[in-house]
Every structure is written in C-alpha cells, then in structure tokens.
C-alpha cells in the first residue's frame, strides 16, 4: 500500500507572485517579494537561505498558515487564498502535512498516540486510524517503537514520529520548516533521506527549508532565497539558473545573475564530494 494521491508531476502546490510585508514599529519588512513557486507530486523542493531570508514566511504562506499581502496560493486545484478561514483549515487538514523543527510531539503520549492525534481530530474511524498509524510508523521505520514516549526516543526518532504524524492522514503535500534544525548532521541526513524516500516512493510533494548545504543534495530542485526574493533555482540538470524576475527587477542582485553557471549547490553526493575536494 502507498500513500500515493496523484500522478507524479501533477501540480500539488503553487504560489503566484507571493508578497508578504510585515509592518512593525521599526518599519516595513519585506519577508517575501514576488515569489513564484510550484511543487509537483513526487518532487522534493528545498528552500535554502540564511536566517531571515524568508523561508518560514514562504512556507507559512504556501501552507495557508499565513495570508500573503498580495499574490495567490493554490493547493492542488483549489485556490487557498480565496477561501475563508474555516474552509482553509479544512483544506489544510485534508491535503497538507506539517513538520516542524521542534518536533511538536506531546510528551505524555506514545509515538503511536502522537501519530494518531490528527486522525482523531478529523474523526477517522478507529479501525482505519489504527491501520494508518501502523502504516505511517512503518514508513518511517519506527514500527517497533510505537509504544515509546518522545523522551524515550532519540532526536532523530522523534522527528521521524513527527514525519509519521504529518503523513498519517495521507496528505498530498508535506511542508517541513527546518525539520533537521535540531539534529546533528548525520541524523539530519538520515531524516532528509527519509523525506526524499517518502516523496519518491509515495508520490508526495514536499517543500523543505534548511540552511544546511549538505541537505540540498537530496532535492529535486533547490530554491535559494535572499532577502525575501528567489535569487537562484537549481534543478537536476545541475545548473544554477538565476531567477529571471530578479534579474529584471532588482539591479542589486546583478551579482547573483552574473554568477558563473557552475553549481553553487551540489545536487548529488558525488558533486558534494567534488565541491569539498576543490575547497569550495
Ligand atoms: N510576524 C512578523 N512580524 C514582523 N516581522 C517578521 C514576522 N515574521 C517574520 N518577520 C521578518 O521577516 C523576515 C523573514 O523571516 P523568516 O522567519 O521568514 O526567515 P527565515 O528564513 O525562516 O529565518 P530562520 O532561518 O532564522 O528561521 C525577517 O526579517 C523577520 O524578522
Ligand atoms: Mg525560519
């Protein structure tokens, strides 16, 4: 059995000209500016950028947790930005799974109970709930740890419970904001591998933020954010393509647009090794 909801390549998530401006006493912060982004079923997109680049803001907009100042979001074929709060919440529950840096597990519940919680909220019948919890824990490799509480699990295992909880309701899209931010680099790599495996075997669409350069190797596409703008997109073709919109509209980013076509982001392990060897 798989969680597959859509044919690979079907558009699962789309943002069009997303802009989010925060207004505070200190003035305006342009956290996202004119961002166009698409994620398809069976595709893992990594959003990379320094602290403050706008990663969380972008994922929150795409996940319907925040509203853009302007621009539109589609989750599958439904325009999320046209929905009222209740309809949006229902769409989120039905189609999206979220993973957070802090895991967000409830300490007094077992791994299985944590995974089951969102299914209880949407009133999935008990027999189906049990089946989905077992399936999700199996997919993240924790079938033998179902009864353990978070404090009895390692950080990596806790995040795998977090991922199981996110996929238990069989979402179309997984949205993960720095899911490896609290993990050591080796564990982070295994968690990222797991996300990649789920995407490629289960037909999930996933968008994951990180600032860890080593984790982008697992991505089908890497989007670089800088000051709320997309400054580069790297695909499996292993070339970093300066974002055309940025090139045209933001002269300050000329340096990025003029960067040589060599990949700054390693796309495969071999490329990463090569890059390390050349001391990049
Ligand atoms: N609610 C808010 N009110 C005001 N400014 C905000 C708010 N949320 C984010 N910002 C600002 O927007 C910008 C982008 O923040 P965001 O959290 O999206 O960055 P990030 O890339 O996720 O950073 P990090 O890697 O540290 O998590 C920052 O300058 C931040 O201070
Ligand atoms: Mg963030």
Task: Describe the structure in your own words.
The chain has 280 residues and is α/β, with parallel strands linked by helices. The protein has one domain: P-loop containing nucleotide triphosphate hydrolases (Rossmann fold), CATH 3.40.50. It has helices at residues 55-62, 85-95, 111-121, 126-139, 155-167, 185-202, 244-249, 254-257, 269-277; strands at 11-24, 27-40, 44-48, 70-75, 78-79, 96-100, 173-177, 205-210, 221-226, 229-234, 240-242. The strands form 2 sheets. It has a 7-stranded mixed beta sheet, with helices on both faces. α6 (185-202) links the parallel β7 (173-177) and β8. The structure holds adenosine-5'-triphosphate and magnesium ion. Adenosine-5'-triphosphate (ATP) is lined by residues 22, 24, 29, 31, 49, 51-57, 211.
């Amino acid at each position: 059995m798989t969680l597959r909801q859509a044919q690979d390549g079907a558009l699962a998530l789309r943002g069009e000209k997303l802009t989010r401006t925060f207004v505070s006493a200190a003035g305006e912060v342009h956290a996202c500016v004119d961002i166009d982004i698409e994620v398809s079923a069976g595709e893992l997109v990594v959003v990379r950028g320094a602290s403050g680049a706008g990663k969380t803001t972008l994922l929150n907009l795409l996940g319907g947790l925040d509203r853009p100042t302007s621009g539109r979001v589609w989750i599958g074929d439904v325009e999320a930005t046209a929905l009222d709060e209740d309809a949006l919440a229902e769409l989120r529950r039905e189609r999206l799974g979220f993973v957070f840096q802090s895991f967000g597990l409830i300490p007094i519940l077992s791994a299985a109970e944590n995974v089951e919680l969102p299914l209880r909220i949407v009133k999935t019948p008990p027999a189906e709930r049990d089946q989905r919890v077992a399936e999700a824990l199996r997919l993240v490799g924790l079938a033998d740890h179902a009864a353990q509480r978070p404090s009895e699990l390692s950080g990596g295992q806790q995040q795998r419970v977090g991922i199981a909880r996110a996929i238990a309701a069989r979402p179309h899209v997984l949205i993960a904001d720095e899911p490896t931010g609290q993990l050591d680099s080796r564990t982070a790599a295994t968690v990222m591998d797991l996300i990649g495996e789920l995407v490629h075997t289960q037909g999930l669409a996933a968008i994951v933020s990180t600032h860890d350069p080593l984790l982008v190797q697992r991505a089908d596409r890497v989007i670089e954010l800088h000051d709320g703008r997309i400054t580069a997109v790297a695909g499996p073709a292993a070339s970093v393509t300066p974002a055309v919109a940025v090139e045209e509209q933001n002269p300050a980013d000329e340096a990025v647009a003029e960067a040589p076509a060599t990949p700054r982001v390693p796309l495969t392990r071999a490329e990463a090794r090569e890059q390390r060897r050349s001391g990049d």
